[in-house]
Amino acid sequence: xxxxxxxxxxxxxxxxxxxRRDKETFLITFLAVSxxxxxxxxxxxxSKKGGFGTGLQALLFGTRQIRLYLQxxxxxxxxxxxxxxxxxxxxxxxLMWLALYYSKRIPQRGKRWxxxxxxxxxxxxxxxxxxxxxxxxxxxxxxMIQLLVRCTLGWIIAYLVIAxxxxxxxxxxxxxxxxxxxMIGRLMMIVSFVILYGLYCPQDPxxxxxFYRNEYMGAQQGLxxxxxxxxxxxxxxxxxxVIVCTGxxxxxxxxxxxxxxxxxxxxxxxxxxxxxxxxxxxxxVHSVKNQLLANRVLLKRMDAELLRKxxxxxxxxxxxxxxxxxxxxxxxxxxxxxxxxxxxxxxxVEENTDSVLDLAIERxxxxxxxxxxxxxxxxxxxxxxxKTHLAEALYNxxxxxxxxxxxxxxxxxxxxxxxxxxxWTVISVTDxxxxxxREQRKHLYEPFWSSxxxxxxxGMGLYYVRQIVKSHLGLLRLEQAPGQGTSFIVQLPNFQRx
Amino acid sequence: xxxxxxxxxxxxxxxxxxxxxxxxxxLNIAYMPNYASLWSVVTGIQMGYFEEEGLNVKLVEFAxxxxxxxxxxxxxxxxxxxxxxxxxxxxxxxxKIFMLSQIGNADAVLARKSRGIETYADxxxxxxxxxxxxxxxxxxxxxxxxxxxTMNDIQAYEMxxxxxxxxxxxxxxxxxxxWSPSTATIIASDPDDIFSMCSNVTFADRSVxxxxxxxxxxxxxxHQEIVLRFARALYKAMDYGSDPANFEQVAKWVAAQCGVDYxxxxxQTGDAAWPSSAEIIAGAQDGTIEGYYKVQQDAxxxxxxxxxxxxxxxxxxxxxxxxxxK
Lengths: 498, 326
Known about the structure:
The complex is a heterodimer. Chain A is α+β, with helices and mostly antiparallel strands. Chain A has three domains: 268 residues, Rhopdopsin 7-helix transmembrane proteins; 69 residues; 145 residues, Histidine kinase-like ATPase, C-terminal domain (Heat Shock Protein 90, 2-Layer Sandwich). In chain A, 67% of the residues lie in helices and 9% in strands. Chain A contains 17 helices and eight strands. Chain A is elongated. The two termini of chain A are 65 Å apart. The model of chain A has no long low-confidence stretch (mean pLDDT 81). Chain B is of the alpha/beta class. Chain B is built from 17 helices and eleven strands. A six-stranded mixed beta sheet of chain B has the order 2-1-3-10-4-11, with helices on both faces. In chain B, strands 7-6-8-5-9 form a five-stranded mixed beta sheet, with helices on both faces. About 3% of the residues of chain B have low confidence. Classes of the chains: A alpha+beta, B alpha/beta. Chains A and B meet through β1 and α11 of A and β2, α5 and α8 of B. β1 of chain A pairs antiparallel with β2 of chain B.
């Protein structure tokens, strides 16, 4: 179970690190890793020294094989003692840093110098406890070892108490329920870490360095891990506490990370929508402004003509017609845009495909009277659709197709074809233009994206078509092949009246 | 009336059973996983000698003697077995010896020929592992003294015994001082290269290596009767275990207790001359045993492990050795 708890600590921080990488996670990772290192070294030391029955062996190591593996690891007493010292002195430091991080009472400016200040004592301890330096230090006087052991334990306890006090204070002062719950979860985990650490916290590395020496034995320091209070029941209690509390803490942190990710995604969506709206507004304003500027020119010409003694009414009439045409065009574009974005309600009813195609072709002919369209559709084929919206979508595809052939001397007729394909009713619009590049295909369905003149095309066509097709529970696909033209394919679910 | 009498008798029987179980004393006894430490105590358990004395013995394994003394001081162990090295702690007043276990020959200095070590002088500058405070340190010091060297002349690596085994087997160190059965394990790993430079017998002129059963002064003051009963059971076990005809059986028990193969335990039956109760009682009475401990103390003083001479009777309870034999 002891080995299991160490594995759990490591696993927890790995999960945390995968889900989030912020200052808090790193501090908790450092805390958990220093604790795991401290405990693992203790287990190695205990495995080497013995003094436990089969019950404790099972509890601490799991199996005899694990115990033997740890027991026969090669360490000099100096190495083992210093590894123990590293975990022992870093844990209170990381705990203090974490408490400082959480504390809202201490101003940010104060924290800036408290972080390095807190590291001074543990840093000094790590230097003094380096085996060679330690031996020289204790040789200075007979009472030095006692002094070091007591002072070290003193600052460790002080760090633990101050850090825990800061954390408890933080929980007490957090009034918002959500954040309070989050903090309690973290506090539970941290307190369980401290309890686990506390089991061997009085284990001075001098015990490992000097256990066999007269200096140590003479000071009657004994072996802390042989403390009878550390019986099977105590171990079980602490291990269960750590497993439960670490689970709760990690769950809270993981949930917090997940919420943060969801919030981020929501934020991205809103940002995208804002970007699209912003782009749309920009295209719209630009286009309308150009039209209005052109109209101003026409108005100026008309004014100039009318200021003459004998105005050329024919010219005025011509300008007026141009002005009306421009005005009509602007109204038409606005209506199109309005239709494109106003797709809130779709009413699906049984419709004959002929009537939908006819409506689309009628609209197309109004816009491009010269457009040639070949229609290949079986008669009396029914689909479930919103006739107006679907016809509008097909009209958009026809317009795109025709405009794609605009540069050609003799444009080929567009092919509007309807057929049944397995579970789908497929309506395709094929043109023989130059096709779409990879880059164009990438942005094809984005709102307000257009490869054409933005004064006359606001890039809402295919976005709108896709929305309409999706509303019909269908799919919109693009197929293009050399010599076979470019086809936009609308797949709608087959409809059969039973 | 008959029914009442039957009831009274039944209650009396139950009470007497309870009284018997209440008198059985639970003892936590510390040992090291080797034949020398277990030969008598495991026999006492298996043959029921402790049970006969009303003692319920629970064995707890430790790596070495100093750790056993620390465990006794922490209160988790009542009595324990120590090897020769830890006796300095008894001389320094940390524990009292109430029974001699045996005079051992289990310690050895092992070296690798491939690292250019053939004589004690070759140890100079070499990486040598040892367990400080134990008989491992003592025998290493004797070996170095033979060549006029000190611990400062070698690259000394302080380790506990299991690390010594791993380090020596893996070739991380050139030589080491250890005790049986670790010595046998190390040699068996590479018998062509690793050899034993010396053992306790080599230095018999300057020291003996007694191993003993010990108790803390406080515990002895409060539980003198229990210590006596334990010593009595040990005597019976020694009488069984010292008979060469029973070596095989004792080795099987030791192997089972240590979780090792029988052959490993059986190989250790030559690590000492296993004494009978009569030999110990006689030795305690005629001063032979006191002589052993005196020589050992002198060796400790000479090496600096013990500062001043202490009367052997201050830390060896000869009374128990004699009384338990009665």
